[in-house]
Design brief:
Elements lengths: L3 H6 L25 H17 L5 E6 L5 E3 L2 E2 L6 H7 L7 E6 L5 E7 L4 H7 L4 H8 L4 E4 L3 H10 L3 E4 L4 H15 L11 E4 H9 L4 H24 L6 H14 L4 E2 L4 E4 L20 E6 L1 E3 L2 E2 L2 E6 L6 H18 L10 H16 L8 H6 L34 E4 L2 E4 L12 E4 L2 E5 L4 E3 L8 H8 L2
Parallel strand pairs: 1-7, 5-6, 7-8
Antiparallel strand pairs: 1-4, 2-3, 4-5, 9-12, 10-11, 11-14, 12-13, 15-18, 16-17, 18-19
Length: about 475
């Protein structure tokens, strides 16, 4: 390729196992430093103290239950994201309590499973209370059997309690604890007078990424970009969509990303017009496109990249035309990502760009861009939003009624999907194209962290040729 940097990024070992020509893994990120989690808890406590105007409060979170798949088999456990964000602790059935008496006493408490040699023999090491306290920097640690006693004792001293209000099972547990206090009313014990949504407070904190988070997310994006490059290189007529998904997973796991951020979308031909199509046994055909929307999860953080490319290594004239429309829309959207701009500005720019260009090629009949946008005529071809927040969750937390701030991370993913119809020329039928990148809001403009996989049309063709 003409770009020497792109040449370096596209170098791979046999089997696509590693990201560099010297077979070196990306530099390790120290995930054992739990000081960063303690700092997040301190920030949360200060935010809650401000909300309560210094009144005593208790904040409670739960890591989650294991979910049964069938019989006595459970799905792999994935910790509640808010819990992990504040603790780094990823065992199921764990509780975290943050308490402040409004004066000098501030406590971080964790309650988790007791050490059990028999269970450890079957399922692996249990962290236990001693290590939970010392390694994860908590003030106190108890077994989960103590949760009712500890929480009720803290609620007795609190005027406010914060918990995830939208989680029904959690609300039921809170109600049970509060009923215990109600029974003590004649003893001079009152229920907390204020119930607050802890999720909203944490979400406002999580939407701005810290230095460690950005470092992890950049690595996740690099791993996912390497997987997309590998998929482009191996794709050819005769392979199955499932073969391509297997290649993606191999690159993820060979680079220590052992989970996907979401079920990978590998959609060839007409399947590219199904927004969340899962990889199937469909065989890739000559002269059609393949759309891959796939990202790994690394150290808990998601990446999310989409690329669309020709199975045969060469776009048809109609495919090239639509690809350039989507790429231009993404460029226009990215230009709107800057400090102080409204979150919706990139979407509005992408919609206008796509509408104008679909009018130009005759797919939208209305000649007025303003009218076509107002009447949403574009939605026949572009029916989803242009992006979302990205972080511990692939569709991460945070309000969308906001303006961009430094170190927010989002995706930009315009697309055009053309299903067969009488008023659509046949050469456009079943063309589905989406281009998606991960973006960090910077002091000036933004940074695309997923561009180690190309988007330029000629570079895409070159990489996908065989």
């Amino acid at each position: 390729m003409k770009d020497s940097k792109m040449q370096k990024a596209n170098t791979r070992e046999k089997g696509g196992k590693h990201l560099t020509s010297k077979s070196k893994r990306l530099s390790k990120i120290n995930s054992e430093n739990y000081e960063k989690f303690k700092k997040r808890r301190i920030t949360l406590r200060k935010n809650l103290q401000q909300i309560t105007a210094g009144k005593p409060f208790t904040a409670i979170l739960y890591s989650g239950d294991e979910t049964k798949r069938n019989g006595d088999v459970s799905y792999p456990f994935r910790c509640n994201s808010n819990f992990y964000y504040l603790t780094g602790f990823s065992e199921p059935n764990a509780w975290m309590v943050i308490f402040s008496d409004g004066k000098r006493l501030n406590e971080d408490i964790i309650m988790s499973k007791k050490k059990d040699k028999t269970k450890e023999l079957w399922d692996g090491i249990i962290i236990g209370q001693r290590k939970a306290k010392t390694n994860y920097l908590f003030d106190k640690a108890y077994s989960t059997e103590a949760v009712d006693r500890i929480v009720v004792s803290k609620l007795e001293e609190s005027e406010c309690v914060f918990f995830p209000i939208a989680e029904r099972s959690f609300s039921q547990r809170i109600s049970r604890w509060l009923s215990v206090l109600t029974n003590k009313k004649r003893m001079g014990v009152d229920n907390p007078g204020h119930l607050g949504d802890l999720s909203r407070v944490i979400e406002n904190q999580r939407v701005i990424k810290d230095t460690h988070e950005l470092k992890v997310m950049k690595k996740a994006a690099r791993i996912s970009a390497a997987a997309h490059r590998e998929a482009m290189k191996i794709s050819r007529p005769g392979l199955k969509e499932l073969d391509i998904e297997t290649a993606l997973l191999q690159v993820f796991r060979n680079n220590e990303a052992y989970e996907v951020a979401y079920p990978s979308i590998v959609a060839s031909g007409a399947n590219a017009c199904i927004l969340h199509h899962r990889a199937s046994s469909r065989i890739l055909q000559k002269n059609e496109l393949i759309l891959i929307d796939a990202g790994c999860e690394f150290n808990g953080y998601a990446s999310d990249i989409t690329r669309t490319f020709p199975v045969s290594g060469k776009f048809t004239k109609a495919q090239k035309l639509i690809y350039e429309i989507v790429l231009l829309a993404q460029r226009d959207a990215i230009q709107k990502i800057k400090l102080g701009e409204k979150y919706n500005a990139p979407h509005e720019a992408a919609v206008r760009s796509i509408t104008q260009n679909l009018i130009n090629v005759g797919l939208i009949k209305n000649r007025s861009v303003d009218e076509a946008v107002e009447t949403q005529e574009y939605r026949k071809f572009y029916m989803h939003r242009t992006g979302h927040w990205l972080g511990l969750d692939v569709h991460d937390v945070g309000s969308y009624n906001t303006t961009f701030k430094k170190n927010m991370v989002l995706t930009v993913e315009p697309g055009v999907y053309i299903r067969p119809a009488k008023d659509i020329p046949r050469e456009f039928w079943n063309i589905g194209i989406r281009i998606e990148d991960d973006v960090i809001v910077k002091e000036k403009g933004c940074e695309l962290i997923s561009r180690e996989v190309p988007v330029k049309l000629d570079e895409v063709e070159q990489l996908s040729s065989f």
